[in-house]
Amino acid sequence: MSSSDTTPHLPIQHQLDTRGLFCPEPVMMLHNLMNDAALGDCIEILATDPSTQRDFTRFCGFLEQEMLLQEDLDGVYRFIIRKVSDTA
Fold first, then answer.
1. Which of 30, 51, 77, 80 is least surrounded by CB atoms within 10 angstroms?
2. b/e 39-67 (16+ beta carbons within 10 angstroms → b)
3. Rounded to whole angstroms, how far apart are CA atoms 76 and 33?
4. How far apart are CA 64 and CA 75, in angstroms?
C-alpha cells in the first residue's frame, strides 16, 4: 500500500463514494459492488468514516481481495481494491 505519488496509474473500473456514511454501510456497499465486479477489476472507494481503514483491510484479508492503495487525504480516506477472488 502506498500513496498516489508513488503508485503508477491504475485503471479504475468502479467508483464507490461512501463519504458521510458510517459502519456498516460502506462495507456492505463494497461487498455488493464486489459481487458485480469482474475478476481483475479495480474499485476506488472514498470514505470519511475512520473505521473504514480497519474494515476495508479486514474485508480484503477475509475475502482474499488485493488492497492496492490506502491513503488519508485530509480526512477523506481513499482505497483502491482489486478483485482477485470470487470469494466476495
1. 51
2. eebbbbbbbebeebeebbeebbeebebee
3. 20
4. 27
C-alpha cell at 16: 464507490
Q: What angle do CA 50, 6, 59 make, to 5 degrees?
A: 35
Cell readout for 87 is 470469494
Please give the positions annotated as active site: 23
**Residue 16, amino acid:** L
Average pLDDT of the chain, as a whole number: 91
pTM (2 d.p.)? 0.88
- 85's grid cell: 477472488
Contact 71, 3 (CB under 8 A): yes
